[in-house]
Design brief:
Order of helices and strands: HEHEHEHEHHEEEEHEHEHEEHHHHHHHHH
Strand content: 5-15%
Number of helices: 18
Shape: elongated
CATH superfamily of the largest domain: MetI-like
CATH topology of the largest domain: MetI-like fold
Number of strands: 12
CATH architecture of the largest domain: Orthogonal Bundle
Low-confidence stretches: 20-33
Oligomer: single chain
């Protein structure tokens, strides 16, 4: 009897505990459901991601005043911020959103019709004639059916489309166009050629004007800056017309209209529908990423071309910067006060201004009247920047050599020039190389900003690939490894020079 009572007592305790756990689980699930996103009202105090300076940016700023707005340059980076939980939602045009959701099954619409967008072509403020001609051209292709063919090719069937052959003799000059190459299906790189709705539209417009089309790839902000500074004649990259932009840029009639949708993670939505399950192993995911980001459409060519540009800019900037640094060092050590003051001002200027700001000033302001290409401007800018630091390295290494050696050399009949070349300079090189090596590696890394001025370097190549694959990690990791290998290889060369200048040192 006692055993039976004991059994009933244990059973009742177990049922009570199970009931408590069940209640807690139900309560937790209920609370979880309550935190799910149902409507736009649920994100009014959340983190919302938008493209910097876009119409969506203006809309969210006006209609979600209590939200934390995260402004990002690229749609691929917006997708990454949503994937990583930095944003609860992102607002994008629905054409781009459809490609994003196709690539990433964890995204879904919170609301698929938040605001309407109209895309237009931007022109230089003094290109009114070109603007009027484009509007005439746009009306003509809408009437003769060509517009519908462009629409079907890139909006409906962009996965299988190729750029058609467009007859154009180009007898009336060149139209310089800016775009990003990162906005599928309007402007993107396919098989290492820039294609898309906007690209075909402008190729046809150039043929209509009997002018060649010269396409330059910028980031979005750089493209608008290039328009304002007269570096290009027009810009086309699904550009939305805003009041601020219209004050400085001429806009064509709208050539494409779409809506914007608010995207969120399916796991954060109240009723997201079916979600894809990914049971692939790490090795399978790596293989898939490798194929998508490198092998498919021969994207490795973009990477190799970008690596070549990065290497060329680094080597030339270092070479010219070292020579210029020697002259600045000579001025800094001159007996003439005016030369010393000029060199001090030069060094102070470059120490106090960020590299990216100086680079953009050189491209969009100082060199703008000369129509200089981005690589040349990058070499000149980085050489000047590098020279300011190299000059101080040279000065300190020269001053570290005891004056007695100079005095002894002069007493033996050597001239000042011979004293410097045969006695001071070899010791100075030996002492400056360890510091020079570190600054040289820094130069390799700062070349990553040249994408701001329409240079297709290693970093820009990875941005273009990410805009196609929407892969947040593999292109960035790949580029980081390549920068490391480039810096490591160049370091080995400098190590070899260091050994040659000090062959008796202990290794």
């Amino acid at each position: 009897m006692k055993k039976l009572v004991l059994y009933f007592f244990i059973l009742s305790i177990s049922v009570s505990i199970s009931s408590c756990f069940s209640d807690e689980t139900d309560k937790g699930q209920k609370q979880l459901q309550e935190t799910k996103l149902r409507t736009l009202d649920d994100i009014r105090t959340k983190n919302i991601g938008v493209l910097l300076g876009s119409l969506q940016d203006e809309y969210v700023t006006q209609n979600f005043p209590n939200a934390n707005i995260i402004r990002i340059d690229h749609s691929s980076d917006l997708a990454m911020s949503l994937q990583q939980g930095q944003c609860e939602a992102i607002l994008l045009d629905n054409v781009t959103s459809s490609y994003l959701m196709k690539e990433n099954g964890s995204f879904a619409y919170l609301d698929d019709s938040v605001t309407q967008n109209t895309f237009a072509v931007g022109f230089q403020s003094d290109k009114k004639f070109l603007q009027n001609k484009f509007n005439e051209f746009l009306k003509e292709i809408r009437n003769n059916g060509i517009y519908e063919k462009i629409y079907d090719r890139w909006i409906i069937n962009s996965d299988t489309s190729v750029m058609p052959e467009i007859d154009n003799k180009g007898e009336n000059g060149i139209i310089h166009m800016g775009t990003t190459g990162e906005s599928i299906p309007f402007s993107f790189v396919k098989n290492n050629v820039i294609v898309g709705f906007d690209i075909e539209l402008l190729y046809r417009f150039a043929a209509y004007m009997n002018m060649k089309l010269d396409i330059k790839i910028f980031n979005f902000g750089g493209m608008l800056a290039a328009l304002i500074s007269n570096k290009i004649d027009l810009g086309a990259n699904s550009i939305m017309v805003t009041e601020e932009r219209a004050k400085q840029i001429l806009f064509s009639d709208g050539y494409f209209t779409t809506t914007s949708g608010m995207l969120a993670l399916k796991s954060n939505l109240y009723n997201p529908g079916e979600s894809k399950t990914d049971n692939k192993s790490f090795l399978d995911k790596f293989k898939e990423s490798f194929v998508n980001n490198i092998v498919l459409e021969k994207r490795y060519i973009l990477i190799l071309d970008g690596l070549k540009v990065t290497f060329i800019i680094t080597i030339l900037a270092a070479l010219f910067g070292t020579i210029l640094g020697g002259f600045i060092c000579a001025m800094r050590m001159s007996r003439r006060r005016i030369l010393r003051l000029m060199s001090k001002g030069y060094i102070a200027f470059f120490r106090g201004i960020p590299q990216v700001v100086f680079l953009m000033l050189m491209f969009y302001v100082v060199m703008a009247p000369f129509k200089t290409d981005g690589v040349t401007v990058a070499v000149i800018s980085f050489a000047m920047y590098f020279s300011a630091y190299v000059s101080e390295m040279f000065r300190t290494s020269i001053e570290s050599i005891k004056k007695g050696q100079t005095e002894a050399s002069l007493a033996m009949g050597f001239s000042k020039f011979c004293t410097f070349i045969y006695i001071i300079f070899p010791q100075a090189v030996q002492r400056v190389l360890p510091v020079y090596k570190g600054e040289f590696i820094s130069l390799v890394k700062i070349t990553a900003i040249v994408g701001y001025i329409a240079v297709l370097d290693l970093t820009k190549a990875s941005d273009i690939i990410r805009s196609r694959t929407f892969d947040a990690f593999f292109p960035l990791i790949m580029v980081a490894v390549l920068y490391f290998l480039l810096a490591w290889g160049l370091t080995l060369i400098l190590d070899f020079l260091e050994i040659k200048t000090a062959p008796k040192r202990n290794l």
